[in-house]
């Protein structure tokens, strides 16, 4: 009697059934929970629900929003603007370009953060199996009695993290860790006993299991205790992106820290230029009063020195606190992301993740070293 097993996904649960070829009846053998967001194999969208990670992600968005507000509404308007005949302030062309450029960089940083956070970093599916070599396939075919097995029947490559469910076997790309194990165990017990084509040799040589999630663990895969999955080429778990950094989202992580570093450097350069101009304006103002005894007039448009109008440093002295906060943010996160970029540059060039270096592994071939990180 031959049986086929398949999984049917419903809105909240994934039901794994088995069909008998004799009477075509479906038998329910497992039911696993399927959430809208999560990191388990049957969840619809990848998102780590760790509370600390979600708080750090929200804080990241708030910091970028604060930077846009401070630059576009406090720093630039008193500097790059003019007043019309009715006294209404308008930004100059340079002011509009600076606001547009800064907001554009911040938006790119936020979008890169979202992609890095909601992209599967390379979690190993629960039905993943090692790939057999050509010699192992030939030896297995010779040892089998009966019709020769085709390579595709023996060599089941690990399905992609986003692969769906296939007929004739369970391709569980969205099962919870506990539910996946129960489903696989139930199906394995019901199928006829055959030599395991995936683990040839004594004691399943070549198949490495994770001690925590009990799933197949490929080379250079590491288990994340926060995501509760084995991640291929895992570099580290970043709380700021609320996700692991692995082979699936490394490119988006690099883009996020790059745009964040550019945003911090941009705001810091504007602050330095504005500080220099303000100091120069006040120096000329006091020097003019000392030498000529002229009376300076402060209007809404700026400071008038000897008939020449200079721009305001700030519309309100209380706004100085906002700019101090912007300085702290730009310096702190600018240095942090700059150090991260230098560290990730060594990861890209050597093709060794942070965990690989901690384990003392050596660098592999340098040919094509940028391909896997730049997609």
Automatic annotation (TrEMBL):
Entry EC no(s): 2.3.1.225
UniProt-recorded Gene Ontology molecular function terms: protein-cysteine S-palmitoyltransferase activity
Comp. bias (Polar residues): 157-167
Catalyzed reactions per annotation: L-cysteinyl-[protein] + hexadecanoyl-CoA = S-hexadecanoyl-L-cysteinyl-[protein] + CoA
Pfam families: DHHC
Record keyword Iron present: no
PROSITE patterns (alphabetical): DHHC (PS50216)
Domain Palmitoyltransferase DHHC: 206-359
Keyword Cell membrane belongs to the record: no
Transmembrane parts of this sequence: 51-76, 88-111, 252-277, 320-342
InterPro entries assigned to the protein according to its UniProt record, in alphabetical order: Palmitoyltrfase_DHHC, PFA4/ZDH16/20/ERF2-like
Region feature (Disordered): 142-167
Subcellular location: Membrane
GO annotations of cellular component type: membrane
Membrane topology listed for this record: Multi-pass membrane protein
Keywords recorded for this protein, A-Z: Acyltransferase, Membrane, Transferase, Transmembrane, Transmembrane helix
Domain text: The DHHC domain is required for palmitoyltransferase activity.
Family: Belongs to the DHHC palmitoyltransferase family.
Name of the featured protein: Palmitoyltransferase
């Amino acid at each position: 009697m031959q049986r086929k097993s398949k999984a049917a996904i419903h809105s909240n649960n994934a039901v794994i059934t088995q069909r008998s070829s004799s009477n075509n009846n479906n038998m329910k053998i497992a039911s696993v929970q399927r959430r809208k967001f999560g990191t388990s194999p049957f969840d619809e969208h990848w998102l780590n629900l760790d509370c600390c990670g979600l708080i750090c992600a929200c804080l990241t968005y708030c910091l970028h929003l604060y930077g846009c507000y401070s630059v576009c509404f406090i720093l630039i308007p008193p500097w790059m603007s003019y007043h019309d005949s009715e006294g209404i302030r308008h930004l100059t062309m340079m002011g509009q370009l600076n606001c547009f450029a800064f907001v554009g960089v911040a938006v790119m940083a936020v979008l890169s953060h979202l992609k890095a956070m909601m992209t599967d970093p390379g979690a190993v599916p629960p039905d993943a199996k090692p790939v057999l070599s050509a010699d192992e396939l030939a030896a297995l075919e010779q040892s089998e009695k009966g019709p020769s097995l085709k390579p595709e029947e023996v060599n089941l490559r690990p399905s992609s993290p986003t692969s769906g469910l296939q007929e004739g076997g369970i391709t569980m790309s969205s099962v919870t860790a506990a539910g996946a194990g129960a489903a696989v165990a139930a199906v394995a017990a019901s199928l006829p006993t055959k030599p395991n084509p995936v683990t040839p040799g004594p004691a399943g040589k070549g198949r490495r299991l994770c001690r925590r999630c009990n799933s197949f663990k490929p080379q250079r895969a590491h288990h994340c205790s926060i995501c509760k999955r084995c991640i291929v080429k895992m570099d580290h778990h970043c709380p700021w992106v609320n996700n692991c950094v692995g082979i699936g989202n490394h490119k988006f992580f690099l883009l996020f820290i790059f745009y964040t570093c550019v945003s911090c450097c941009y705001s810091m350069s504007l602050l330095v230029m504005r500080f220099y101009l303000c100091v120069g304006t006040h120096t000329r103002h006091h020097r003019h009063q000392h030498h000529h005894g002229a009376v300076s007039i402060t209007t809404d448009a700026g400071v008038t020195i000897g008939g020449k109008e200079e721009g305001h440093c700030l519309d309100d002295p209380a706004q100085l606190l906002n700019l101090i906060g912007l300085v702290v943010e730009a310096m702190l996160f600018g240095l942090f992301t700059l150090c991260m970029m230098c560290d990730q540059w060594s990861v890209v060039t050597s093709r060794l993740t942070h965990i690989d270096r901690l384990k003392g592994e050596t660098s592999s071939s340098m040919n094509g070293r940028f391909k896997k990180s730049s997609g």
